[in-house]
Amino acid sequence: MTSSSTAPAIALPARHSAGCPFGPPPAYVEAAATARLTQATMPGGEPCWLATGYTEVRAILSDRRFSSDIRHPSFPLLVAGSRERITEHPTFLNLDDPEHARLRRMVTGDFLVKRIQAMRPDIQRITDEALDAMTGGRTEADLVADFALPIPSLVICLLLGVPYEDHEFFQRVSRALLTQSSSPQQLLDARDEMLEYLTELTARKRAEPQDDILSRLAVRDDLTTRQIASTGFLLLVGGHETTANMISLSTALLLEQPEQIGRLADPATLPGAVEELLRHLTIIHTGVARVALEDVELGGTTIRAGEGVMAMLSTANRDEELFGSTDRRPVEELDLDRDARRHLAFGFGVHQCLGQPLARAELQIALATLFRRLPGLRLTVPREELSFRTDSFIYGMHSLPIAW
Questions:
Q1: DSSP SS3 for 388
Q2: pLDDT tens per residue, range 273-288
Q3: H or E stretch at 301
Q4: What is 10-403's CATH topology?
């Protein structure tokens, strides 16, 4: 590995700073300020590259010379441990084409913009019901538990055909899977528990199919039960954890900048405001992993075949060259009038987030409804007492105490 910087290698994953809870860890910001490609080390001690610039991150995610296949012997893993066991049963997110494309194509239709637009009345109803339950007879609540989690959980359960009464189970398992401090055995146990649950559910769907994603997969004859369970695993975990964390983080940030909340009330500016929140918060702070299949020159640096790369969406989305040249506020500040449409919060290329139309609809509806119905919303603790999920692969909040 030839270095593009004389700075010492950054140990991954870097830690967040209590002083700046809404931004990426300072080590990544400092790396981005000095070089767009720097050396880093994985938790197991293996060297890899850290890509922090927008151009470099986008190039890596769109270049098929960089593999997403977690089974590759040099694929960078943020969990040190038994590589063979950890890389068992990959979802299509961690596979390359044509295998990735074949599996992804089977569920693409359920997340098309037209399909999600038709779901907006259901999402609005779920949001209103969550707010009714949260505010009924109370003046205080935990926004995470009472609002941010129930909405995407109910929606993804509706789409997948997962009983919502099981939500405490899959939320518990999801947290174990996404916690950086979980041991390899804890991760394996949580994964196996979720896969067993979805395998049993798939068998029931095969016997009595309904109008949901798991049922449509279950009646196919070109998928194994484990492939169906793995796809359900990806959609279930990703479909509620990511949006739930975006709702809570966005609310906490906006309560610090109430002068910007009005942008959510106007249907004309609401979509753009949500894009800026996605850019600014970018909850995948740990990066997106790839491994080079052949030598690739990027920005004057050669990444050798077999070398791992972590593409940092969070710093790419704060690249001054792209987002800071014509805006009123610098990239490290929230500006709901900024043109943030080219952000990489959902990734880029063939592996970009399948559920982004759903996430956008949920965020637009949840945030606009929350601030419209509770104009007096406020935090009940100082910011320094808020509890952030600094040990999670998906950044967010443990709780958000609010009153109205």
A1: strand
A2: 999 999 999 999 899 9
A3: strand 301-303
A4: Cytochrome p450 (1.10.630)
